[in-house]
UniProtKB/TrEMBL annotation:
Source organism phylogeny: Eukaryota, Viridiplantae, Streptophyta, Embryophyta, Tracheophyta
Family: Belongs to the FPP/GGPP synthase family.
Claim: Magnesium is one of the keywords in the record: yes
Protein name: Uncharacterized protein
PANTHER family the UniProt entry points to: FARNESYL PYROPHOSPHATE SYNTHASE, FARNESYL-PYROPHOSPHATE SYNTHETASE
Coiled-coil annotated residue ranges, if any: none
Cofactor(s) demanded: Mg(2+)
Pfam short name (any one): polyprenyl_synt
Species this protein is from: Panicum virgatum (Blackwell switchgrass)
GO biological process terms on file: farnesyl diphosphate biosynthetic process
Length: 140
């Protein structure tokens, strides 16, 4: 089994492509969630930018390891479409959590950059939008 050998094997590019495709689906679901209290377009655009800025750009080793672990636990080299989506979704949960933790780490450490870009809290227009959106939301 390729996943058990410590490498992703020949299907690495297809696994990565499926993983990235799942990201797009999950983000779309998040932004189109009709049960969310966040409905104004400027807030949705902020979430879109924030998630892309803080989650994408890494190697996705944690998330892809979740997919590999899922294969090992299932005892298969290739997952069904449904299992692949579930495994990728779990992997993205880890990646999104990591993005969240990195933002907090950057703030606590007063970092300047992350992955070659200014830290999220140092992007002036984004900080202003986040604060003003939150203030508007609590005063309505």
């Amino acid at each position: 089994m390729a996943a058990a050998s410590g490498s992703r094997g020949a299907d690495s590019s297809s696994s990565t492509a499926a993983f990235m495709e799942t990201y797009s689906k999950l983000k779309k679901e998040l932004l189109e969630d009709h049960t969310s209290e966040i409905t104004d377009e400027s807030s949705l655009q902020l979430i879109h930018r924030m998630v892309d800025y803080n989650v994408l750009g890494g190697k996705c080793n944690r998330g892809l390891s979740v997919v590999d672990s899922y294969k090992i636990l299932k005892g298969v080299d290739v997952l069904s479409h449904e299992d692949a989506f579930l495994a990728c979704t779990l992997g993205w949960c880890i990646e999104w959590l990591q993005g969240y933790l990195l933002v907090h780490d950057d703030i606590m450490d007063n970092s300047q950059t992350r992955r070659g870009k200014p830290c999220w809290f140092r992007v002036p227009q984004e900080v202003f939008r986040a604060v003003s959106t939150r203030v508007r939301g609590t005063t309505n």
